[in-house]
């Protein structure tokens, strides 16, 4: 099935998209209007599958020390913080019982402490994917420091590769050495935003550190140009062949590339892309996430949940459980914080003693898309 999906994705998506209709809109004209034809989250009910949101962002611009990141295009306009309590009020009615914060700005190391503090005070938060620069000589020290907190489950970084004069991608040796320490600590690596270079680098990193759990964030948001379709299918096939690469089926609703900014809500088009990626990576390597509040103005949390509930309604309950919470448990090894959260299927290792490793080169070369974390 995966082979068939991989071989025909270009034609399948073109056929599925169909004509533009009222469910699509131009991002340049402001936040998305209500979309009554978009799937909505099913109301929570006894026996419903619990949902862990593996990708949200938190920030508070009222703090004296602030990273400067205030969300996506439309959330910046409302000029509000994004806190666990604000998120929980919107998420719980859709069946979401837990969430993982993923760093949204990589400038300041002390943001890790703030993520951990606000998460510790709010039991809906089950994990933190923070920011430690793998290009820093201090990476081992800070890895050991933050890993002592059981909520610290991953880091997010995409600057572990360089490009030579011919434009070829190569791994940064210093960063690979530090990411081996991340794997030894039993923590995961988030990477974003999807680009051909980053996807190829993820394949290389998966081979170099086969016990590192590598997460490709927001893969459905990548729209290959027609000329790059074959190369895109090839790198998807290579990533799918590496069992330590996992995928977030997030940012399914997103602006199309180019200046028009059209956000497609045509379900059949979205279903075709989701099916392609699901068949490629399989039921054990995909995760749910809303990307809130970067999704604000593009799709509501209810729409994000409802879209994926509709897609998985044709799958078995076991497959639904894996996507909505079990896989994130195995990949992040998050911490159960409240009675309504499911019991994790995996537990992280205790914090190890400080890794001993010699110094090495400083920061790696350029190459990560949209900076280290990309803010998405």
Termini Cα gap: 31 Å
Rg result? 20 Å
Helix content: 25-40%
What is the approximate shape?
A: globular
Structural class by secondary-structure content: alpha/beta
- Kindly estimate the percentage of residues that lie in beta strands according to DSSP: 5-15%
Largest sheet: 8 strands, parallel
Q: Strand order of the main beta sheet, please?
A: 2-3-4-5-8-9-10-12
Helix-strand pattern: HHEEHHEHEHEEEHEHEHEEHEHH
The total of helices stands at 12
Unreliable runs: 1-22, 357-374
The counted number of beta strands is 12
Could you report the average pLDDT, rounded to the nearest whole number? 87
Overview of this protein structure:
The chain has 376 residues and is α/β, with parallel strands linked by helices. It is 34% helix and 12% strand. It contains twelve helices and twelve strands. The protein has helices at 2-7, 9-17, 73-78, 84-91, 111-120, 139-147, 173-184, 196-208, 229-240, 267-281, 301-312, 317-332; strands at 25-26, 51-56, 96-102, 125-130, 152-156, 161-163, 169-171, 188-191, 214-216, 245-248, 262-263, 286-287. Strands 2-3-4-5-8-9-10-12 form an eight-stranded parallel beta sheet. Helix 8 packs parallel to helix 9. The longest helix is centred in the C-terminal third of the chain and has 16 residues, at 317-332. The protein is globular. The two termini are 31 Å apart.
